[in-house]
Amino acid sequence: MTTYESIAKRPQTRPRPYGAYAKQVAFDITADQYRFLKAVQTRSGSTMAETLRAAVELWMTSVSATGKE
Questions:
Q1: DSSP designation for 30
Q2: Of the candidates 53, 51, 27, 59, the residue with the CA atom closest to the CA atom of residue 69
Q3: For residues 5 and 69, what is the distance between their CA atoms, to the nearest angstrom?
Q4: For residue 60, is it within any domain?
């Protein structure tokens, strides 16, 4: 059996993200939402990642407070 055949016969598993990659979340925003977040970022002087993180945390808090998901 060649190396290629032994690799091909192994069960295929999906790789799992580790570290920071495991914590990434993807979501879609509209152009208006992006412009708003960009304005908030400019005024606050924070990075876009920090601005998005704060926006998502605010959204999650408001959703959990209303009991709707």
A1: -
A2: 59
A3: 47
A4: yes
Q: Which of 61, 52, 50 is nearest to 34 (CA)?
A: 52
Number of domains in the chain: 1
CA 17 to chain centre: 12
* In a domain? residue 53: yes
**Domain membership flag for residue 23:** no
Summarize pLDDT for 20-61 with one digit per residue, the tens.
666 666 778 889 988 999 999 999 999 988 998 898 888 888
Do 38 and 48 contact (CB within 8 A), yes or no?
A: yes
Give this prediction's pTM: 0.52
Domain annotation covers residue 47: yes
